[in-house]
């Protein structure tokens, strides 16, 4: 999809979004990886290369995160640590400071990328993303309430899931027609986002006496002070959820063809949609419980993934990789870039993601104003 | 809609405003007994309470002025765009003004008074223009691109404002509250500084009342009645931008007042702008004062920012408007 399709965001019904996507048949040109009865994973050579490139980039950025700056631990230290011969300070940096931070960024990025891809595929709407419907903000409010207001009542991830679920439910109810109308989803999403943010503000004001930095971390998401506990949360969530996503991935690919066709090819549309939304909510909530409500990663990752692979369908794997890349690079920026250092990572993703969205809108504006 | 009903709505709103203003003077984040405050108002009482009252006067007056400005701004935007979801916050006016003020403060140090208003205006105008350019699509009557563009521009500017405030705590210590809109530090000097802009905006708004009534009949009819539609639109939007930017300059971005009040107003007095404007003025003032009193009470002993309360109370209006099917698309 090369431009933001605002015909889908307007008066006409949202269909598949571009001429490119409809021009080639989704399964055509893809090889299928079969494993047992249930698992059939379509993959493409180009997507494979893109994935390999992104993975290399993420590993490189991760190593840079560990190595740069005065406290850095280079590859040699890393190898020494793996052999169990590293110095105590190096170990501290790796195990307590930067190691968890990198892993949390990768995990949360993967979860957000996947959640965004699932959502956009199901809502058939380039803007149907956890960010736009206030899901991330809802999960953030859930985390704030469960950690600050009633600590010990429920663990943070559970709070995140409850908050995210509530946000989705409110949007679903307020539109009066589920997620069928992109326009209504966007507008109710703005309202839900505002309410969730207000709740977070309230909780932080009551519990933290409104310290600006903590407030920002709770409102926009931050990867500072992560520990191995956070990494464990996101690792377990991904280990449970990713296989489930793959189980429905083939049916999601068929969903691109439209409900009726998908139905006749054996993808139960409604059931698939419900599962996809549920998984997306859980994934986004898991990401928020380790990184906070980081904006626009889930929204932009699938767009960028589609641009890179030029393949139709949800592009799940590449979206996940792009999400991880965005979060790791943004976090590296706020750690090492003068002028940005010390800021919560969510500020960078909100700014950069917002600019990217603006650019998409501008393309759309150019395209439509070119026609009279 | 009979005139008597409208007059009743107007006078009812005025009484409400008086009651709320009294509450705003007597209630605070500490459990000060209202009797003591009444004694002070009667001209007897203790020093401490007099101090408290001296701080609450500007807060109350400022709250009323800002609430009124935002509500009138909302009425103008919704009428001109013929869009029930138009609101200075959703169109990026408030975030534009905030970003502009923050930038000016970072460059010139924390300035007060006139400088702040002067700093807020260009940002507000730029943001609105950007939203317009991004969101206006030829031949589309849909409100969505505009709202979406507003959300995008607001998100980017919001990130910028947050970044500035966190990166330069020495400059922005006093701005922490200002980021979401707060009446906590309201002073009369600030009010005098924004008053000219507010009055000018209000005058322009009053001047466009007749035209707006004609415009409600449709563009062609309005033009047939001799209304210069383009000029009217520009005037009304200029008024809306002035009002919202001045309000934002004074107390920070406050969302949803400009969205919720016009809906209430139309429900009470119908579509005649000659009634809509005065009622919006009074109701907007009352609503923001209610929100501010709530902000002082709900998180005792801490205070919330009033913008947080308006977001929580105002957002449901947006959801209700969508559910009732007031959005095409």
UniProtKB/TrEMBL annotation, chain A:
Annotated protein name in UniProt? Iron complex transport system permease protein
Keyword set includes Plastid: no
Which keywords are on file for this protein? Answer: Cell membrane, Membrane, Transmembrane, Transmembrane helix, Transport
**Localization (cell):** Cell membrane
A Pfam cross-reference name:
FecCD
Topology relative to the membrane, per the entry? Multi-pass membrane protein
Chain segments carrying region Disordered:
1-21
User: Which protein family is it in?
Assistant: Belongs to the binding-protein-dependent transport system permease family. FecCD subfamily.
Q: Tell me where the transmembrane regions lie.
A: 48-69, 102-120, 132-150, 156-173, 185-208, 228-248, 275-296, 343-362
Iron among keywords: no
From TrEMBL, chain B:
Q: Which organism is it from?
A: Nesterenkonia lacusekhoensis
Task: Look up and give the membrane topology term.
Answer: Multi-pass membrane protein
**Could you read off the lineage of the organism from its UniProt record?**
Bacteria, Bacillati, Actinomycetota, Actinomycetes, Micrococcales
Record-annotated membrane-spanning stretches: 57-77, 89-108, 114-134, 146-167, 191-215, 236-265, 277-297, 304-322
Name the keywords, alphabetized. Cell membrane, Membrane, Transmembrane, Transmembrane helix, Transport
Which coarse location class applies to the principal site listed for this UniProt protein? membrane
Query: Taxonomically, which superkingdom?
Result: Bacteria
| Protein name, UniProt field | Iron complex transport system permease protein
* Location relative to the cell: Cell membrane
Q: Known PANTHER family for this protein? A: FE(3+) DICITRATE TRANSPORT SYSTEM PERMEASE PROTEIN FECC-RELATED, FERRIC ENTEROBACTIN TRANSPORT SYSTEM PERMEASE PROTEIN
Q: Which family does it belong to?
A: Belongs to the binding-protein-dependent transport system permease family. FecCD subfamily.
């Amino acid at each position: 999809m090369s431009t933001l399709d605002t015909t889908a965001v307007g008066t006409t019904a949202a269909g598949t979004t571009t001429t490119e996507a409809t021009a080639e048949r989704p399964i055509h040109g893809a090889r299928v990886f079969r494993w047992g009865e249930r698992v059939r994973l379509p993959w493409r050579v180009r997507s494979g290369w893109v994935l390999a490139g992104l993975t290399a980039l993420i590993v490189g950025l991760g190593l840079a995160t560990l190595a740069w700056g005065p406290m850095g631990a280079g590859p040699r230290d890393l190898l020494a640590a793996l052999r169990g011969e590293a110095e105590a300070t190096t170990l501290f940096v790796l195990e307590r400071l930067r190691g968890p931070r990198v892993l949390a960024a990768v995990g949360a990025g993967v979860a957000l990328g996947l959640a965004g891809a699932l959502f956009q595929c199901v809502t058939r709407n380039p803007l149907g993303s956890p960010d736009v419907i206030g899901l991330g903000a809802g999960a953030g409010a859930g985390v704030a309430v469960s950690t600050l207001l009633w600590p010990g009542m429920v663990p943070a991830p559970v709070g995140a899931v409850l908050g995210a679920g509530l946000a989705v439910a409110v949007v679903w109810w307020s539109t009066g027609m589920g997620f069928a109308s992109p326009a209504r989803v966007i507008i109710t999403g703005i309202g839900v986002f505002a309410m969730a943010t207000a709740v977070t503000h309230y909780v932080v004001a009551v519990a933290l006496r409104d310290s600006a930095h903590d407030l920002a971390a709770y409102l926009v998401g931050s990867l500072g002070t992560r520990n191995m506990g956070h990494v464990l949360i996101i690792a377990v969530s991904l280990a449970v959820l990713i296989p489930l996503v793959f189980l429905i991935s083939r049916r999601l690919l068929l969903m691109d063809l439209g409900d009726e066709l998908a139905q006749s090819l054996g993808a139960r549309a409604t059931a698939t949609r419900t599962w996809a939304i549920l998984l997306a909510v859980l994934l986004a909530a898991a990401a928020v419980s380790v990184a906070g409500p980081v904006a626009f990663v889930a929204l932009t990752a699938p767009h960028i993934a589609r641009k890179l692979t030029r393949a139709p369908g949800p592009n799940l794997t590449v979206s996940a990789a792009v999400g991880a890349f965005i979060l790791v690079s943004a976090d590296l920026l706020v750690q090492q870039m003068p002028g940005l250092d010390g800021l919560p990572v969510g500020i960078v993703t909100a700014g950069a993601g917002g600019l990217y969205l603006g650019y998409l809108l501008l393309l759309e504006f150019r395209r439509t104003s070119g026609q009279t | 809609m009979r005139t008597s009903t409208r007059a009743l709505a107007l006078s009812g709103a005025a009484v409400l405003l008086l009651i709320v203003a009294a509450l705003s003077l007597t209630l605070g984040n500490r459990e000060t007994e209202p009797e003591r405050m009444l004694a002070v108002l009667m001209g007897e009482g203790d020093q401490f309470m007099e101090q408290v009252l001296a701080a609450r006067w500007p807060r109350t007056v400022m709250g009323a002025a800002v609430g009124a400005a935002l509500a009138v701004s909302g009425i103008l935007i919704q009428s001109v765009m013929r869009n029930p979801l138009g609101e200075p916050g959703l169109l990026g006016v408030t975030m534009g003004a905030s970003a502009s003020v923050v930038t000016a403060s970072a460059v010139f140090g924390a300035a007060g008074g006139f400088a702040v208003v002067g700093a807020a205006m260009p940002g507000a105008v730029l943001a609105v223009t950007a939203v317009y350019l991004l969101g206006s699509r030829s031949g589309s009557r849909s409100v969505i691109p505009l709202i979406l563009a507003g959300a995008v521009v607001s998100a980017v500017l919001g990130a910028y404002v947050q970044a500035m405030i966190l990166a330069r705590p020495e400059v922005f210590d006093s701005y922490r509250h200002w980021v979401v809109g707060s009446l906590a530090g309201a002073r009369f000097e600030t009010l005098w500084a924004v008053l000219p802009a507010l009055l000018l905006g209000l005058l322009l708004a009053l001047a466009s009342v007749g035209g707006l009534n004609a415009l409600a009949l449709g563009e062609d009819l309005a033009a047939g009645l001799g209304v210069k539609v383009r000029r009217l639109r520009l005037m009304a939007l200029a008024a809306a931008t002035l009002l919202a930017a001045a309000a934002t300059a004074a107390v920070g971005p406050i969302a949803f007042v400009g969205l919720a009040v016009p809906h209430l107003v139309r429900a009470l007095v119908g579509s005649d702008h000659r009634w809509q404007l005065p009622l919006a003025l009074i109701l907007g003032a009352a609503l923001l004062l209610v929100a501010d009193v709530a902000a002082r009470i709900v998180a005792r002993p801490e205070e919330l920012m009033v913008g947080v309360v308006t977001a929580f109370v105002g957002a449901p209006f947006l959801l209700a408007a969508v559910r009732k099917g007031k959005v095409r698309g």
